[in-house]
Amino acid sequence: MLGLNRNGFKVEHVAEGYDWHGYLDKVRFLRRVMARVAKLDPDQLVLMLDTDLGIACNEKEIVERYRSISQDSGGLIVFSAESCVMGCNERCDEIPKVPKWVTTHDPQFKDVRQFMRLEDEGELDGPVHINSLNSGGIIAPAALMLRMYKKIIEVFEWGAGRDLPTDQHLYYYYWLNNTELVTLDYQMKIFSNLCDMDTDRLLDKRNDGSVMNNLSRRKACIIHFNAESKQNAESVSRIFGEETWKILEPVTEPDPVSSPGG
Question: Taking the model in full, what pTM does it have?
């Protein structure tokens, strides 16, 4: 995770010291932490992030953008969004289109094809929008985050939660069953996901060190080098310089252990 010190963030590693059995355990780890935070202050805003990303703005900017998304959408749990579709499984057809509030508040919101990495410009025959959930970034009040984690564990505890190739299926379940509470960052106000994106088209490094997201027409906040975007080391290093190696190193997931999870 890059850019923490320069932007004043402190991070808690929620899985350190625990055995890994599968992606449902990731939710268990988060539930433990969220139970502690929610007990102290149920309204405390919590930002949950994957580690293969960089932070390019400060806490105040993130909170302001969260409040803007929440006010426009009515949702209090905001997930990162991307154009890639992964983890929805049998429910992919249920993914909502970009809601009207997005284009109402942002009439210039664009078809994202011009920012995508395409070998053939004609390989997509229609508009592409950022309307798929990405579980690498979530921001919400602690009590609501805790409620979500508890429900996911309740539903998937005895099912296929341990054998999933990604945790996104768990979060898709919660989103598609709670669309009045959960929304996505459709405009990349907070989260800039680079899956399927051409980093050089999407992001510009400014002379003052800030990073501009050309799709959202805003300063980028959290840049997620997910999926195959890690393979473009030159583009990534243009944004975060010599720290780039920290997120380009391959990550090996631990082998599942035989003992049951807590």
Answer: 0.84
